[in-house]
Amino acid sequence: MRRSKCGVMLISGFLGSGKTTFLKRLVEAVCTFTKPVVLINEFGKVGIDGEGLQETGLEILEINRGSIFCACAKGDFLRALYSVVRDFKPKLLLVEASGVADTRDMETDLKRGKLADFYEMIGNICVVDAYRFENLVEMFNATSRQVEAATIIVLNKTDLVDSSKLDSIKKHIRNLCPTAPIYVTSYGQVDIGFLFQNVKLSDGACGIEEIPGESEWEGFIESCLEDPGSHLDPPDRLFSQTIGWSGSPEAFASLLQVLPADIVRAKGFFVGKTGEVEHFDYIKQLGLRVSISLHFRPRLFNNIGVFIGQRFDRKELSDLFEKNHLKILDHQF
Q1: What pTM, to 2 d.p., does this model score?
Q2: Cα gap 130→162, rounded to integer Å
Q3: Are the CB atoms for 96 and 102 separated by under 8 Å?
Q4: What Cα–Cα distance (Å) separates residue 301 from each residue in 227, 240, 305?
Q5: Between 20 and 30 A from 172 (CA), which of 75, 86, 135, 191?
Q6: Which of 83-97, 144-158, 165-179, 190-204 has the lowest mean pLDDT?
Q7: Positive or negative CA dihedral for 171, 175, 177, 179?
Q8: Interacting residues of 106 by C-beta distance below 8 A, sequence separation 6+
Q9: pLDDT per position as a tens digit, 12-26
């Protein structure tokens, strides 16, 4: 009997490009014809983005503390792929990569031994921030590598640039990735027909009878991590700090206005003045956005944030919290 495979669609894009908003739109559209499993990879020690998808009722897996394509978390990723096929047997797996990921190995990895038995790559979607792209591609290697590996480019935030700038960005993208179609959008709006026009998902679920045991799969993982051809080093030197704290929302609002200059991304949740949970999202060059979170329920701390920067200074953020009379309850690097 022919075994059906799980289709894997990867969503990449540099920090703050709009991946998670796009993923939410994609999930809404995909759920009209199949029930996917979603795997979210975050660079920080605590997952933030997965909270907004919990209300969908889907199986949501999270891998934090580094990129699933680097040595620090690739083993965890390969173990998660085993769990997905063993426990859920979906037709579709949506993977949101960390914003700093080098995604060039994804398609090759899925053609390896055990993975090739159960998975097939059906798309590598790179979400590009039109407003910041030309600066980011000069500053961070991950930006260009994600574009180079893509099979579809979603050019997002195009409402923030004029037509001549947009043409220049498209030309730049085309130099990096000559063949991938470019889908122009804002706010992560998605046309499911465009993304799946050349994709046919397998009928039925993955064949459970032939799934190997855990020890056999661990041997396969070891061989993958020893492959000298894999890109297991991070493409850029970025560092994350995850902080849980207590203190007044006004004090934290003041802190957000004076973040260190090297911070390129910050996001998380805090309890606002009215007692409602608020979501904060800072992107360098775009600034800060704060909104009420309707779905988040704190799992560790009422106030939790991930701060990603280009320098590693253990004291700078700690001192900033202390200066704003905020008590740090947990601090992870």
Answers
A1: 0.86
A2: 10
A3: no
A4: 39, 18, 10
A5: 191
A6: 190-204
A7: positive
A8: 8, 10, 69, 121, 124, 149
A9: 999 999 999 999 999
Smallest Cα–Cα separation from 13: which of 22, 5, 4?
Answer: 22
Encoding tokens for residue 237? 């030197």
Q: Looking at residue 301, what DSSP letter applies?
A: -
CB 157 within 8 A of CB 130: yes
59-79 residues labelled b (16+ CB within 10 A) or e (exposed): bbbbbbbbbbbbeebbebbbe
Helix (H) or strand (E) run with residue 47 in it: none
Alpha carbons 163 and 168: distance in angstroms, whole number: 9
Report residue 62 as tokens: 């999270």
Strands 327-332 and 239-246: antiparallel
Between CA 101 and CA 187 the distance in angstroms is 22
Residue whose entry in the numeric block shows the structure tokens 């009997």: 1
Please say whether the beta carbons of 269 and 304 come within 8 A: yes
